[in-house]
Amino acid sequence: MTRKSFSSASGISRTKKWLSLLSLTVLSLTANLFPAQAQNGTVILPSIEIEVDGTTYAKTQSTGQSDIRDISSSDRSVATAREWGTNSVQISAKRPGVTRIKFFDKDTNTTYQVTVTVKPRKKLQVGPGNPNGTNNPAGNGGGNNAAGGNNAGGGNAAAKEIEDKTAFGNPLKQSLPNGGFKLVFKNKAGQVVEEREYDKAGGVANTKHVQKVYPNGKEAESYKVNDKGETEQSYFDPTGKLIRTERYKDLDSFGLATTKEVTENGQTKIYKLDPKTREWKLQNEESKKEEPKKVPDGQNPNQPKGGKLDKCLVGTWRSESVVHGASRGGAGILMTVKADAEVTIDYSAMQELKQEVAGRVTGTSSWSGSATGHITTSNGVASVSSVENTALTHKSTDQYGTKTGRLGGLGPVFEGGGKVYQLNYTCDDGSLIIKPTIQGQSLDTYTFKREK
Q1: Residues 40, 45, 51, 54: what is their CA dihedral angle, to the nearest 10 degrees?
Q2: What is the C-alpha separation between 118 and 233, in angstroms, rounded?
Q3: What is the pLDDT of residues 61-113, one digit of tens each?
Q4: What is the pLDDT averaged over residues 223-244?
Q5: H/E element, 361
């Protein structure tokens, strides 16, 4: 009996060792399959690049079903995300810029983070010699030469994409002549991946993201995003000389650029976005003289401003709560809807939104200012038909610092104006609930109580 007991104990010991080795092997394979880095208790996934209007996916490290929740984006105007499939989130790009997508897997008690860089659509990045607003099918390598493109100014053929765009360690702080300062972020390899310029008051004036560098370390391609959401794409030769810039400006009420300025060889050409074809049209001096008087974004001067309106919405409303991604709060937004479909919304008294992870506040955000426009409704869906006045700003704070900027249209309550998302609503005598929705998935929830 003693010998049998000893043999059994040895077998159990060998089994434990075998299981331990198997676990180590599985962990090793998992690490190779999912090259992520743990940082402050959060799994940092490889950075993602995507074009405007594109979609991509980020996965958990789980091979089975994940219970994904608390999905958030540090800048929802750049990209948003939602649960997708068994262990993924689907990321949808909206405008050029950079955002950090976070989500939580309850099954494994793991928080994930991925940095998403959204680039302008290639079909809209036009060489100044192409009046139709489309790229040469040969691509940037040689197709843009006829338009005076990248290769004509010294080229960036030897430039390579920065593979790791995740900031590592503490940023370098530099003083600026205007009294502000700049924070320079580098990756693990010591390459500069991001620069943030702050004004005297400490607000972010613009953020630059480095995309490509030459073998000598010189910057080849980068883009900036200012506090208005306007972007500037820059190209350099191997000596560091600026050879070309593309500025996307004059954002409409939905955050889309309507003007592009291309500067190359000391000359600047201006393009306007055709609202029907969505192509860039080269402007000349004669067309500028004949340009009609500008009307507010979304307004057609030949048609009534407002459309069909559900009478239930008429009145004064104040928000009781806001669920914005993983953030909660937002009481105090004041909205007045008139019988002619005019909407005035004031975010000035709004309470702060707070994002919590494991009971700890990891970020805050708020909106301020007011806007006036007109809406139309049909079968429980609202849309913005015009925006007459808008003066909205946002402020967000997380572990990376504080960001401020401007908002367009009627603000987050009517995000996208009903053109990017479907603005579903339910209304009764005492309450109004608005839910921006995409592909049947509600993104946010705004709950209002009637005041009069």
Answers
A1: -110
A2: 12
A3: 776 667 788 888 887 778 888 877 667 888 888 878 888 898 888 878 888 88
A4: 85
A5: strand 360-378
CA distance 430 to 425: 14
Provide the pLDDT for residue 69: 83
Using an 8 Å Cβ cutoff, are 51 and 120 in contact?
yes
User: Measuring CA to CA, which residue among 404, 331, 322, 393 is closest to residue 355?
Assistant: 322
Task: For residues 353 and 351, give the distance between their C-alpha atoms in angstroms, rounded to a whole number.
Answer: 7
Cα separations (Å) of 179 from 182, 195, 198, 224, 402? 10, 17, 9, 20, 18
Q: What whole-number distance in Å separates Cα of residue 277 and Cα of residue 215? A: 40
- Residues 208-219 as b or e (16 or more Cβ within 10 Å = b): bbbbbbbeeeeb
**How many CA within 13 A on the CB side of residue 96?**
29
| CA angle 171–172–178, rounded 5-degree value | 120
Q: What is the pLDDT of residues 141-200, one digit of tens each?
A: 333 333 333 333 334 457 888 888 788 888 899 998 888 899 999 989 899 988 988 888
Using a cut of 0.90, tell me whether the model's pTM lies above it: no
> Which residues are 282's β-sheet partners?
271
Q: Which pLDDT does position 277 carry in this prediction?
A: 67
Q: Find the angle CA(226)-CA(230)-CA(236) to the nearest 5 degrees.
A: 80
When mean pLDDT is compared across 4-13, 46-55, 190-199, the lowest value belongs to 4-13
**Residue 33: φ, ψ to 5°:** -75, -30
CA-angle at 398, arms to 194 and 225, nearest 5°: 35
The answer, yes or no, to whether residue 447 has pLDDT greater than 60, is yes
Q: Parallel, antiparallel, or unpaired for β 422-427 and 315-324?
A: unpaired
Segment 419-422 long-range contacts (CB within 8 Å, at least 24 positions apart): 419/254, 419/383, 420/94, 420/254, 422/381
By DSSP bridging, strand 315-324 and strand 334-337 are antiparallel
Other beta carbons less than 10 A from residue 20's beta carbon: 10
Half-sphere exposure in the Cβ direction for 42 (13 Å, CA) = 18
Domains of the chain: 40-119 (2.60.40.1080), 122-289 (no CATH), 311-450 (2.40.128.280)
Pairing of strands 110-119, 42-44: parallel
**Residue 36 reports pLDDT greater than 70:** no
Q: Please provide the DSSP assignment of 375-434 as one string.
A: EEEETTEEEEEEEEEEEEEEEEEETTEEEEEEE-TT-GGGGGGGTSSEEEEEE-SSEEEE
